[in-house]
Amino acid sequence: MTTKLMKGLNYLVMFVLLNILWLIGIVIGLFFGGLLPSTYALIAMYRDTELFDGFTSYRQISKRFFVLWWKGFKHFKFSVLLFPVAIFIVYLDILLVQQDQLMKAMFLWPLIALMCYLGLSMVQFAYTETVSGDSIKAKLKAALVAPLLMPLESLLSMLVFGSFFVLCLRFNWLFFVFAAALLFVICKMLQNGYAKKGLVMHD
């Protein structure tokens, strides 16, 4: 019982630390240049099977995160702006339609669905970067059509992502605490989907 409790606490502390690192990475890149590298770094770290074993120091974890952040920033180049700009525009539209009841009734849920699709596509884009040697253009295409290739995993991921986003609209603090845990869950879903389809090679 004590071992399970300690393991659970370690996961909790680790997710909080990773969430802080992810947010710092976003701030360093002024959101538009930091969102994708931060997400890539987080996903790359999740592929480390020893991340949650409790033997790696927080300093080592932080150092590895920023090494991966810089690697992603350099590698993605101008494509680093694609998803953040699109997500920002849709988010502004969501805020706008909430000012009018008719517009809210007509457009709010379609915009939330679009936001979820863009967020999931960005996660898939970052994920494929950690497991595939294809070009950025090929990975971008794969991320955008992934819902067609993995309908079940994509649907479940969008439901999880959408539920979290709706909750964040009501409780803003959730974004600053549980975003890293959300990415962990979605990555596990994507990993299972890609493995079933044989779309990427895992280490």
Q: Can you characterise this structure?
A:
- The structure is a single chain.
- The protein has 203 residues and is an all-alpha fold.
- The protein contains eight helices and no strands.
- It has helices spanning 2-28, 35-46, 58-76, 82-97, 101-131, 136-149, 151-170, 175-197.
- Helix 4 packs antiparallel against helix 5 (101-131) and helix 5 (101-131) packs across helix 8 (175-197).
- The protein is globular.
- The model has no long low-confidence stretch (mean pLDDT 87).
Keywords:
globular; 203 residues; 8 helices; 0% strand; mainly alpha; 80% helix
Sum this structure up briefly.
The chain has 203 residues and is an all-alpha fold. It contains eight helices and no strands.
